[in-house]
Amino acid sequence: MADDHLHHEDLAGQVPSDPALRIKALESLLVELGLVDPATIDAWIESFEKRIGPHNGAKIVARAWVDPDYKQRLLANGASAIGEMNLLGSQGQHIVVVENTPIVHNLVVCTLCSCYPWPLLGLPPRWYKSAPYRSRAVIDPRSVLREFGLELGPDAEVRVWDSTSEVRYLVLPERPSGTEKMSEAELASLVTRDAMIGTARIPSPGRTR
Amino acid sequence: MNGIHDMGGMHGFGPIAPEANEPVFHEDWEARMFGLRRAMTSPPGFTIDRFRFLRETMPPATYLTWSYYEHWYFATAQSLLQAGMVTIEELRTGRAAAGRPKRNDAMRPESVEAAATRGGNFARAIDAPPRFAVGQAVVTRNLNPTGHTRLPRYARGKRGLIHHWHGAQVFADSSARGDGECPQHLYSVMFSARELWGADAAPQDKVHLDLWESYLDAL
Q1: B8 to A135: CB separation less than 8 angstroms, yes or no
Q2: What is the pLDDT of residues B105-157, one digit of tens each?
Q3: What contacts B205, CB < 8 A, 6 or more positions away?
Q4: pTM of the entire predicted model
Q5: So what's the ipTM on this one?
Q6: Are residues B94 and A24 in contact, defined by beta-carbon separation less than 8 angstroms?
Q7: B90 — contact with chain A (CB < 8 Å)?
Q8: What DSSP line would sit under A66-99, residue for residue?
Q9: At A57, phi and psi to the nearest 5?
């Protein structure tokens, strides 16, 4: 395609500078042209505000904690093990789950854009899409983790996963101590979004970090 | 392309600043742009890779000052402009020019639930066997295409090991150009942090990237 002939500067300079007005104009235009149904826009928003979010990924993690066979299947073939729980969706067909241990810490980033396992975690937080995180996670993951309050020992190995293809990565965090008697649902309630990205550990219940 | 989007390893952007109890959307227009992108009828031949490439073509200063869903606006508007489906004047005013044909085949709300939980499948069967085996040493090519690529600058000309073979998938570089899927074998390649960043990196740390076969040579 003839990208050389485009004048990109013109687009930003010729449309309303206020994003609310700019996007309202785009929506009005596409509705008028019959290219979008506003009710479908509402349905997509509702889907990601109400139904799809980190609670989905938390179910996978909790299942893996209580069921060693499931955990094995999950680590061997993430997509099919997650498929068993009916949680695959947009931006999540190819999923690889990587396991944290006392000596291995995994961290997920997308340096080129903001690829993220939507069906399991919902839409990414602002910091995940930001220049500081995208630039630093690969070159200095230890300082990134420190900023999130996570100090790794010098012997720990950090494995960073840069999401450069349609494969999406989910971290299986360590199960915290003091949770031996918890049910799968109780365990799922402990699992945080950041722990599944790799920027946090899950503290033992009843204890702060 | 060697654009501002290729941020891995850059310095100077400051601290990360996570936000406690962050909402899914901060502004109503972010939600509208998200929903619009997912709900709208795209130009013929439009792909996720094309969408990413158009975001990369933003002027660098705009890329850094416009927020995430404004990037979506840019790429969406640009795709419609390129296809001749809208004009700048229409984007500016939000009103269709007189005489524009109207369509009535847009995605319906009842299709959203299935679409949100189905997702895309980018795996493709190809005849060629994979050139590399798990555990094999490889070196990434020093490629500097002006179009879309998923081989970031920081990982070019670097030695790594094949960690996992994902099978063949749609080749993003080709799909972004509008040249079809041209599927290739895709590998998770493991690099030592020291190979990428030098002696200051922790010796045991690793960075993994998913890389297509044509990015790689046997070492």
Answers
A1: yes
A2: 999 999 999 888 776 889 999 999 999 999 999 999 999 999 999 999 999 99
A3: A141, A142, A157, A158, A159, A160, B192, B193, B194
A4: 0.96
A5: 0.97
A6: yes
A7: yes
A8: H-HHHHHHHHH-HHHHHHHTT---TT-SEEEEEE
A9: -60, -35
